[in-house]
Amino acid sequence: MIKASERVGVHSHIRGLGIRNNEPQPVADGLVGQIEARRAAWLVVQLIKKGKMAGRAILFVGPPGTGKTALAVAIARELGPETPLMALTGSEIYSAELKKTEVLMQAMRKSIGVRIRERRWVYEGVVEKIEYKFDRHPLNPYQQIPVGGIITLKTDKETRTLKVDSNIVYQLLQRGVSEGDVIWIDEETGRVTRAGRVKGYGEYDVGASELVDMPKGPIYKEKEFVYTLTLHDLDEMQSRSESIISLFFGAPEYKEIPPDVRAKVDKTVKEWVENGRAELIPGILFIDDAHMLDIEAFSFLSRAMESELSPIIILATNRGYTRIRGTDIESPHGMPLDLLDRLLIIKTQPYTPDEIREILKIRAKEEGVELEDTALEELVKLGSERSLRYASQLLAPSKILAEQKGKTTVTVEEVQQASKLFISTKESAKYLQELEEKMLK
Predict the structure, then answer these.
(1) What Pfam family is a match for this entry (predicted)?
(2) CA dihedral 269, 271, 272, 275 (to 10 degrees)
């Protein structure tokens, strides 16, 4: 069985840009090297915070494996833990089910959060006593159904007994509410929320319930609820509510969300913001391999940058001069010149052997791989000669090979064995050249 701690992402170690006193550190927050690129990214973060990025986007350019995606993730981390980050590659927009512009629009709206604040009158307390009343089902005399109940709630200030209807009883049963649980009952909608189990009440040696503090103050109170959704979440909710099919079968009718639905959501969100009920959290839309986009997608992004509700768009590419997809025109990075003029372009440099060594140390620690010094140096050599990405990918196979031999530490022997089993891109290309005549075309 795979442990949760072992399921790590490629950039799960990134915590930020590693800036201290406005200067990037050689190794910090999971980033190594790329000093100039990180300094530029830090200025981008300041521009975003001051609201001066409207109508512009960012483009990272550099060879493969030079940290372009890591820098995009780091920018999102610097903007705060609640900043939405939506990442996709240029090829993902070519979907058989959705139009290219629809894929991009959904990605953009997934990159914009809406923090909604609601004040509701609720009954909140610890369930001290609960009794249900049952009666025969009107259509099935052999079945009983809940028709009401009595629940006693308690806080540090008072105790109160409430009569509740069958709707609330159903919810209490569905949520498995029992004595000692802390719950909220919305006065207007009757919605029941189980917050967890109060600390110190019937402690178990083993239990899955979250422990919470005893509620304070009166049982009947006005309570503020804060929750964050994306614009795309609100789009889907609105489209489902307008779909007759969804009312019967519980599924959205639309694969593509109609423009009028989005217009209604935008109008509602603006009203919420003006009334102080919500605030927007602009996030990051990161598109890797941006050279895979075509002229239609680039035109869409150019218009999107001018929109009031637009995330920070970050593009990345490892291409030089190449043809703009959908045209016969060659251009830097395969992008239209009018779009390039509106981008803040940041270059990334190949890593030095010392920087590769530090990155591999970080990745090995993140993936729980113990490396002997000789094994680390062999990976550094492979990273310098072939690619950093290739060397990083050998960490997990090398660990498994070591475990099969009963070792707890990876040695140079396992690294060399893994490099023979899994060849690099350069070796693959050389292999194709050697056997070109025998390969299918």
Answers:
(1) TIP49_C
(2) 160
**pLDDT tens-place string over residues 255-281:** 677 888 888 888 888 888 888 888 888
Q: Per residue in 324-372, pLDDT tens?
A: 888 888 888 888 888 888 888 889 888 888 888 888 888 888 888 888 8
The answer to whether the beta carbons of residues 271 and 243 sit under 8 Å apart is no
* 45 and 147 together in one domain: no
Q: Does residue 4 form part of some domain? A: no
In a domain, 250, yes or no: yes
Is the whole-model pTM more than 0.90? no
Residue 406 maps to a domain = yes
- Please count the other Cβ atoms lying within 10 Å of the Cβ belonging to residue 155: 18
The per-residue pLDDT for range 278-317, each reduced to its tens digit, is 888 888 888 888 888 888 888 888 888 877 778 888 998 8
**Locus of tokens 């000789």:** 374
pLDDT at residue 246, as a whole number: 44
Angle between helices 100-110 and 231-241 (to 10 degrees): 120
| Pair 236, 368 in one domain | no
Closest CA to 234 of 186, 198, 206, 273: 273
Phi, psi (deg, nearest 5) at residue 61: -125, 140
User: Is 441 inside any structural domain?
Assistant: no
Residue 331, SS3 per DSSP? strand
> CA Rg, the chain, in Å?
28
Phi, psi of 114 (to 5 degrees): -125, 110
Model confidence at 232, pLDDT cuts 50, 70, 90, reads confident
| Beta pairing partners, 129 | 152
How confident is the model over 236-259, as pLDDT tens digits?
877 766 544 443 444 444 567 788
Whether the per-residue pLDDT at 140 is higher than 80: the answer is no
Residue keyed to tokens 């050697």: 434
Tell whether 83 and 223 lie within a shared domain. Answer: no
CA atoms within 13 A on the CB side of 417: 14
User: Does 374 lie in the same domain as 328?
Assistant: no
Contact status, residue 89 vs residue 285, Cβ threshold 8 Å: no
Q: Structural domain of residue 410, as residue ranges?
A: 353-434
